[in-house]
């Protein structure tokens, strides 16, 4: 009896040591991955192509995230000047005629949904937040059309917080590199993946890291025909190896 108990304790101890060792390896790989991506961004900076990235205007950050949903960055960039010339702040959004707003947004698609979200969002921000983009996740999630990804994107790009972001493109990258599987059918709300992603942005470099992984997903780790042979992460990527 004592022998069986002792064996069970030894087995649990061995399993605990193994799990801690694997976590340690994962942590080292996460740090290396982040370091490689930041170096890659230093050599491949695309910020000049996307005007909202070069602005400190928090309205522009929130607006861009709403417009970027199910739309490419190149599409939004091509229409950015036209949109912001008519809707340059929350007051403009509130005052513009709904039909005109739909017409302005039509080149991006989803103009009916987007225009409603922007109208409702501007109304709430003007009424509840004195016309300013709120700075907490709880407040951001209270806005129409804003989910966890958009809230974290605003916290990161507008307020400089070191928070993680998860969309289909970022998920593709980390699932390939680290062989992660979603435990929830809706990946965007899978806490397992969110918890993993939260460990990736280095302290003080959340904005740089998130831009890096977004650009990396778009330029290298693409959905179809990823450029694995020229990928800077290929030596530590489980998808390649």
UniProtKB/TrEMBL annotation:
<dbReference type="GO" id="GO:0035485">
    <property type="term" value="F:adenine/guanine mispair binding"/>
</dbReference>
<keyword id="KW-0411">Iron-sulfur</keyword>
<dbReference type="GO" id="GO:0051539">
    <property type="term" value="F:4 iron, 4 sulfur cluster binding"/>
</dbReference>
<dbReference type="InterPro" id="IPR000445">
    <property type="entry name" value="HhH_motif"/>
</dbReference>
<dbReference type="InterPro" id="IPR004035">
    <property type="entry name" value="Endouclease-III_FeS-bd_BS"/>
</dbReference>
<dbReference type="GO" id="GO:0141016">
    <property type="term" value="F:G/T mismatch-specific thymine-DNA glycosylase activity"/>
</dbReference>
<dbReference type="GO" id="GO:0046872">
    <property type="term" value="F:metal ion binding"/>
</dbReference>
<dbReference type="Pfam" id="PF00633">
    <property type="entry name" value="HHH"/>
</dbReference>
<dbReference type="GO" id="GO:0000701">
    <property type="term" value="F:purine-specific mismatch base pair DNA N-glycosylase activity"/>
</dbReference>
<dbReference type="InterPro" id="IPR011257">
    <property type="entry name" value="DNA_glycosylase"/>
</dbReference>
<protein>
    <recommendedName>
        <fullName>Adenine DNA glycosylase</fullName>
        <ecNumber>3.2.2.29</ecNumber>
        <ecNumber>3.2.2.31</ecNumber>
    </recommendedName>
</protein>
<comment type="similarity">
    <text>Belongs to the Nth/MutY family.</text>
</comment>
<dbReference type="Pfam" id="PF10576">
    <property type="entry name" value="EndIII_4Fe-2S"/>
</dbReference>
<keyword id="KW-0378">Hydrolase</keyword>
<dbReference type="InterPro" id="IPR003651">
    <property type="entry name" value="Endonuclease3_FeS-loop_motif"/>
</dbReference>
<keyword id="KW-0479">Metal-binding</keyword>
<dbReference type="GO" id="GO:0034039">
    <property type="term" value="F:8-oxo-7,8-dihydroguanine DNA N-glycosylase activity"/>
</dbReference>
<dbReference type="InterPro" id="IPR044298">
    <property type="entry name" value="MIG/MutY"/>
</dbReference>
<dbReference type="InterPro" id="IPR004036">
    <property type="entry name" value="Endonuclease-III-like_CS2"/>
</dbReference>
<dbReference type="InterPro" id="IPR023170">
    <property type="entry name" value="HhH_base_excis_C"/>
</dbReference>
<dbReference type="GO" id="GO:0032357">
    <property type="term" value="F:oxidized purine DNA binding"/>
</dbReference>
<feature type="domain" description="HhH-GPD">
    <location>
        <begin position="67"/>
        <end position="219"/>
    </location>
</feature>
<keyword id="KW-0408">Iron</keyword>
<keyword id="KW-0227">DNA damage</keyword>
<keyword id="KW-0234">DNA repair</keyword>
<dbReference type="GO" id="GO:0006284">
    <property type="term" value="P:base-excision repair"/>
</dbReference>
<dbReference type="GO" id="GO:0006298">
    <property type="term" value="P:mismatch repair"/>
</dbReference>
<dbReference type="InterPro" id="IPR003265">
    <property type="entry name" value="HhH-GPD_domain"/>
</dbReference>
<dbReference type="Pfam" id="PF00730">
    <property type="entry name" value="HhH-GPD"/>
</dbReference>
<keyword id="KW-0004">4Fe-4S</keyword>
<keyword id="KW-0326">Glycosidase</keyword>
């Amino acid at each position: 009896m004592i022998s069986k108990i002792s064996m069970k304790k030894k087995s649990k101890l061995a399993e605990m040591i193994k799990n801690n060792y694997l976590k340690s390896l994962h942590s080292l790989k996460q740090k290396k991955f982040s370091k490689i991506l930041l170096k890659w961004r230093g050599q491949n900076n695309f910020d000049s192509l996307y005007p909202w990235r070069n602005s400190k205007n928090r309205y522009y950050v929130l607006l861009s995230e709403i417009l970027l949903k199910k739309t490419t960055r190149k599409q939004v960039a091509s229409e950015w000047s036209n949109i912001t010339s008519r809707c340059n702040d929350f007051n403009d959004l509130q005052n513009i005629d709904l039909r005109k707003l739909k017409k302005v947004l039509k080149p991006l698609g989803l103009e009916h949904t987007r225009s409603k979200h922007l109208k409702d969002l501007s109304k709430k921000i003007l009424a509840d937040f004195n016309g300013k983009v709120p700075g907490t996740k709880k407040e951001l999630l209270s806005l129409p059309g804003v989910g966890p990804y958009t809230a974290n994107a605003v916290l990161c790009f507008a307020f400089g917080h070191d928070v993680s972001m998860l969309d289909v493109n970022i998920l593709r990258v980390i699932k390939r590199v680290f062989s992660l599987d979603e435990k929830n059918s809706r990946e965007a709300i899978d806490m397992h993946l969110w918890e993993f992603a939260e460990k990736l942005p280095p302290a003080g470099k959340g904005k740089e890291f998130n831009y890096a992984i977004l650009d990396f997903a778009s330029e290298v780790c693409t959905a179809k025909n990823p450029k694995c042979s020229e990928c800077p992460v290929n030596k530590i990527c489980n998808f390649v190896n």
